[in-house]
Amino acid sequence: AQARAGALAPAATGPATSRRLERAAAAETSNEQSGEPLVEFRGVTISYADHVVLNDLTWTVRAGENWAVMGRNGSGKSTLIELISGENPLAYTQDISLFGKRKGSGESVWDIKRQLGVISTEVHMEYTDFADPGNRWYARTHAHVTTWEVVCSGFFDSVGLYTAVGPSQREAALAWIDRLGVSDLVAPPRAGGSAPSGQGQNRNFFHLSFGEQKLVLLCRALVKSPRLLLLDEPSHGLSGLARTRLLSMMEVVADDPTIAVVHVTHREDEVQHMGFQRVLRL
């Protein structure tokens, strides 16, 4: 598929808050002139056998920009996310730069990960498999995987928490939990490791609903305040309250000028709701 990138795309009109739209429009000229490039694709072409997924894509995401990525199934949306996140090794065969460093130029994968937050079906499946009580290896040392552990694992880009959380990390986690409005799902354990009861309890991640797990994983992706947040169909499979809560959380992120967002979706109503002024159509 040939990609078409555009700033101030028509699809961005809709019931988004005027404050967000006005701020994005005001920042447009400034970003084009001085916003630091976080992602740069130059003539990127990806194909599998005879199927071309991305064709000569040149595209730049600058600091603080919010992008929607749209296209039909098989158009390369998920491939695009994988090329940025490092999950697709073909990234090293292309002219792609992240945070000012070309892929394959000796950059550390952990330096890249520290600046990225990711929500995807793969991340969700990894964590639900890991938290499954049938996971015998983990069950030897943990009664269950708590939502606090899931959120704090975002500091270390790990599935599971294996490092003690420091005071500053604890405060950062609490701040994001409050900011995103998920204190009913996540709270730190009390002294001695016991979990508080009632609202705000340190809950068992595996026993949450599918939608609640998504909310916790979004908090995990944001807990380290990444420079770039990658969202691959984040509302897929959600309806009702869970989807409403997720969109509200994403609005909080969209209003943060320190975090750039690349949001893959096939839903035009989502693009309009969020007020995206930059849309990449694949």
From TrEMBL:
Residues 1-17 have a biased composition (Low complexity). It is a peripheral membrane protein. One of its GO terms (cellular component) is plasma membrane. Residues 1-34 are annotated as: Disordered. Pfam families: ABC_tran. GO terms for molecular function: ATP binding; ATP hydrolysis activity. InterPro entries: AAA+_ATPase, ABC_transporter-like_ATP-bd, ABC_transporter-like_CS, MetN_ABC_transporter-like, P-loop_NTPase. It comes from the Eukaryota. It is found in: Cell membrane. Residues 39-282 form the ABC transporter domain. Keywords: ATP-binding, Cell membrane, Membrane, Nucleotide-binding, Transport. PANTHER family: AMINO ACID IMPORT ATP-BINDING PROTEIN, GLUTAMATE_ASPARTATE IMPORT ATP-BINDING PROTEIN GLTL. Belongs to the ABC transporter superfamily. This is ABC transporter domain-containing protein.
